[in-house]
């Protein structure tokens, strides 16, 4: 049996136990409520789906739960913006550095000139990125985003959760103020409300752990879906996305996550985490109860256990 076969077997044997052991820590977390619709999620849930290059899958726990991608979508809108505009333009709108601040902070937009967001994975950065996605109207931009996500997830039924979209749009005072500040700083292109609409829509795309794992698999294989052999993203843009995931993907807990887990990952406030073992697996995790930094508390615990047991850290 090859090393990979052995590893897969070991994962198959251990995954249900690791999920059972990590699940209780969800009691120490809280489901996000600042987007009212998100507060309906089951806080005690924990699920995982993993896929390899041959399309073999492993699932455990509440892996069939569907949830909105929220900030996980920012990785892929960044990639689409890079495809549409190239690096030079994208990096005239957002920087390449972690902030150490909360994901929804706008502090540095005023403090640090020239007032561009530090990176594309904080809210301000993702809003700036939304403004340069190709398309003649907000609807066309949103529809290009959805098509791109469907292709990466290999799932044509991927769609918006309109309840969550409306819930966020109706309550997003902070993101709106960020949009206007970005416009004033000369960063946002186009109408602020149009840009925010594209942003709220991509955050509200519904997915399951299986969808996240298939999207992650494309990143794990440098832009080519190893199951179909189709090249979906230029390698350079995958490199940029994975670097941001490693340095900023878990917000101001990214350093700790790099030490404890050591894999590229991106979290969302709905409790999803997209991660991967480069060259091996795409991974999708859901655990709606969050820790103080906005990351799934049980999901992070599960990934820590897996990475440490399997010796997956890249570092
Ligand atoms: O803009 C927001 O606040 C949400 N749509 C996304 C934030 C998010 O997922 C941050 N995650 N940890």
UniProtKB/TrEMBL annotation:
Q: Where does substrate bind?
A: 71, 123, 168, 175, 199, 251, 269
Q: Which family does it belong to?
A: Belongs to the glutaminase family.
Assembly and partners are described as: Homotetramer.
The record's keywords, sorted A to Z, are: Acetylation, Hydrolase
Query: Which Pfam families does the entry link to?
Result: Glutaminase
Q: What class of enzyme is it?
A: hydrolase
- Tell me the InterPro entries matching this sequence: Beta-lactam/transpept-like, Glutaminase
What EC number(s) would the UniProt record show? 3.5.1.2
Query: One GO MF term, please?
Result: glutaminase activity
Any idea what this protein is called?
Answer: Glutaminase
What catalytic activity does the UniProt entry give for this protein?
A: L-glutamine + H2O = L-glutamate + NH4(+)
Q: Tell me the gene name.
A: glsA
Q: What is the lineage of its organism?
A: Bacteria, Bacillati, Bacillota, Bacilli, Bacillales
Signal sequence range? none
Q: Tell me one GO biological process term.
A: L-glutamine catabolic process
What HAMAP family does UniProt report for this protein, alphabetically? Answer: Glutaminase
């Amino acid at each position: 049996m090859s090393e990979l076969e052995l590893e897969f077997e070991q994962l198959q044997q251990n995954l249900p136990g690791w999920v059972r052991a990590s699940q209780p820590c969800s009691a120490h977390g809280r489901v996000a409520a600042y987007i009212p619709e998100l507060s309906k999620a089951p806080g005690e849930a924990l699920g995982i789906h993993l896929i390899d290059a041959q399309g073999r899958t492993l699932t455990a726990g509440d892996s069939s739960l569907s949830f909105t991608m929220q900030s996980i979508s920012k990785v892929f809108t960044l990639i689409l913006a890079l495809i549409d505009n190239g690096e030079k333009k994208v990096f005239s709108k957002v920087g390449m550095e972690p902030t150490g601040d909360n994901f929804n902070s706008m502090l540095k937009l005023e403090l640090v000139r020239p007032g561009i967001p530090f990176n594309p994975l904080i809210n301000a950065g993702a809003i700036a990125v939304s403004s340069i996605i190709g398309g003649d109207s907000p609807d066309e931009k949103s529809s290009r985003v959805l098509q791109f996500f469907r292709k990466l997830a290999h799932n044509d039924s991927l769609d918006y959760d309109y309840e969550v979209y409306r819930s966020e749009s109706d309550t997003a005072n902070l993101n709106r103020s960020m949009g206007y500040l970005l416009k004033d700083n000369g960063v946002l292109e186009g109408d602020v409300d149009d840009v925010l609409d594209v942003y709220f829509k991509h955050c509200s795309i519904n997915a399951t752990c299986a969808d996240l794992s298939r999207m992650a698999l494309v990143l794990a294989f440098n832009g080519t879906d190893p199951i179909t052999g189709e090249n979906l993203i230029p390698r350079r843009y995958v490199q940029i996305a994975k670097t941001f995931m490693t340095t900023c993907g878990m917000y101001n807990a990214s350093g700790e996550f790099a030490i404890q887990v050591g894999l590229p990952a991106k979290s969302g406030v709905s409790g999803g985490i997209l991660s991967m073992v480069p060259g091996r697996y795409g991974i999708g995790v859901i655990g709606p109860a969050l820790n103080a930094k906005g990351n799934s508390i049980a999901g992070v615990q599960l990934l820590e256990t897996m990475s440490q047991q399997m010796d997956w850290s890249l570092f």
